[in-house]
Amino acid sequence: MVITILLDTIGLQFSFWEYPIEFLPVIPSAFPFDVSLVPVAYMLLFQYNRTWKSFISAQIVMAFVYAFIGEPLCNWINLVCYIKWNYMYSFLYYILIGLGIRALILKWVSVSKSRKKRCQAPFFVIKYQQLILQSKKTGRSNRDFSDLSTD
Q1: Partners of residue 82 on adjacent β-strands
Q2: Per-residue pLDDT tens over the stretch 62-83
Q3: H or E segment at 76?
Q4: What pLDDT does residue 45 have?
Q5: Would you place residue 107 in the very low, low, confident or very high pLDDT band (cuts 50, 70, 90)?
Q6: Mean pLDDT in the chain?
Q7: Which of 27, 69, 81, 96 could lock 31 by a disulfide, CB 3.0 to 4.6 Å apart?
Q8: Are 27 and 9 within 8 A, CB to CB?
Q9: Hey, where are the domains in the chain?
Q10: What is the pTM assigned to this prediction?
């Protein structure tokens, strides 16, 4: 979402496109699209396509629909006017952003999982939990651990 808003602002500043109709004068014209349609499509692709192969296939279909159907429709109804921009650039943009975001998320998840494995409870906490479990099995009170071995 932030990437889309940033690149949309850059495209406006460099006159790659313009928005003839402003929804609200205080927000960027494509803000509703940048915070709803594009991020939601990426979230759905990521959620329902677990493998890279299926994700890339779905990503190409989504990029095709957005770049060669959605954008020409918006251009036709005068929501956007492309000055120095081509639909093929948008097609490549949608694919590259989707692949980059998926790679970033998968890397973040793997780092998070590896940190969870390294960050185990201290030895005395694990030993205490083992003693509690053993006392529940034997029926002893939680305070009577004096005769339990501590190896």
Answers
A1: 17
A2: 999 999 999 999 889 988 888 9
A3: helix 71-76
A4: 93
A5: very high
A6: 82
A7: 27
A8: no
A9: 2-138
A10: 0.69
CA torsion, ordered 75, 86, 92, 35, to nearest 10 deg: -30
Distance of CA 133 to the CA centre of its chain: 40
Provide the terminal-to-terminal Cα distance of the chain, rounded to the nearest Å. 54
Instruction: Give the long-range contacts of residues 17-20, CB within 8 A, separation 24 or more.
Output: 17/80, 17/81, 17/82, 17/83, 17/84, 17/85, 18/80, 18/81, 18/83, 19/79, 19/80, 19/81, 20/78, 20/79, 20/80, 20/81
Which sign does the torsion angle of CA 25, 14, 90, 8 carry?
negative
Counting Cα atoms < 13 Å in the Cβ hemisphere of 88 gives 0
**According to the model, what pLDDT value does residue 112 have?**
80
Give the tens place of pLDDT for each residue, 21-38.
Answer: 777 777 767 777 777 888
Is residue 8 a contact partner of residue 28, using CB atoms and an 8 Å limit? yes
- Could you please report the per-residue DSSP string of 36-87? IIHHHHHHHHHHH--SHHHHHHHHHHHHHHIIIIIHHHHHHTTS-EESS--H
Token digits for 7? Answer: 């690149």
Q: From the DSSP assignment, how many helices (H) and strands (E) are in the chain?
A: 7, 2
d(CA 151, CA 142): 18
Nearest to 37 by CA among 71, 60, 83: 71
